[in-house]
Design a protein that fits this description.
This protein has helices spanning 2-44, 63-72, 149-155, and strands spanning 52-54, 78-82, 96-101, 108-110, 115-121, 162-166, 179-185, 197-203. The protein has 209 residues and is an alpha/beta fold.
Length: 209
């Protein structure tokens, strides 16, 4: 009886050892395959080169047509701004025309270069020089006279208390980009320390009193 038990134990031990060896062999094989795949994926990645093209002449075109022509030429990063410095939004592009472009026509640049169009409404004349909205005021009050009320508001700190009054009548000032500053308080050059700001204004095309 003792001999039979010994034989059974030896047989079971051989089966367990053989199964473990096979499992180790399979695990090693699968790990080798994963390593090969990772190496192949790493070696296949290549850097992409941006194509370069000449920028077309878009000045004088309607803003929508200019954007379409820029995209047809391979340029898709486009923006526009108010050439009169009034900070108006170009909501309906067909109502605006291009006065200037940020990259000179004919210049060869990467196609991911941003093109910025200065534009005015169709009935307006392009300015002799492209005007930009006032920059951030920082700690000193700028001279906002002649600038749009909207541009002045954007240039000041967002927490500034601002009062705007019609300089000639008692009209409500609804679309601030259509109104120009006639007077301001505090005066230009004054240090800004959170004090309220007051403007008087008239519509563009009107004269300040």
């Amino acid at each position: 009886m003792a001999n039979h038990r010994t034989t059974a134990v030896v047989t079971i031990g051989l089966l367990v050892f053989g199964g473990s060896a096979a499992a180790c062999k399979n695990t090693t094989g699968s790990g080798s395959t994963a390593g090969t795949s990772s190496s192949t994926a790493t070696g296949s990645s290549d850097a992409k080169t941006t194509e370069k093209k000449a920028v077309p002449n878009l000045v004088g075109m309607g803003l929508q047509s200019a954007q379409d022509a820029a995209q047809a030429a391979g340029f898709y990063t486009l923006k526009s701004h108010d050439s009169l410095g009034r900070d108006r939004n170009q909501i309906l592009d067909r109502d605006w025309k291009v006065c200037s472009q940020s990259v000179t026509a004919g210049k060869t640049v990467p196609t991911d270069t941003e093109l910025d169009f200065g534009a005015v409404k169709l009935k307006e004349d392009c300015p002799a020089k492209d005007q930009t909205a006032p920059a951030d005021a920082g700690g000193t009050m700028p001279d906002f006279k002649g600038k749009s009320v909207k541009a002045a508001r954007v240039a000041l700190d967002s927490g500034t208390s601002i009062t705007v009054k019609d300089a000639s009548e008692n009209r409500f000032i609804l679309v601030e980009s259509n109104w120009q500053v006639c007077s301001q308080s505090p005066a230009a050059g004054t240090t800004l320390n959170g004090q309220p700001v007051e403007f008087t204004a008239v519509k563009f095309g009107e004269s300040c009193p």
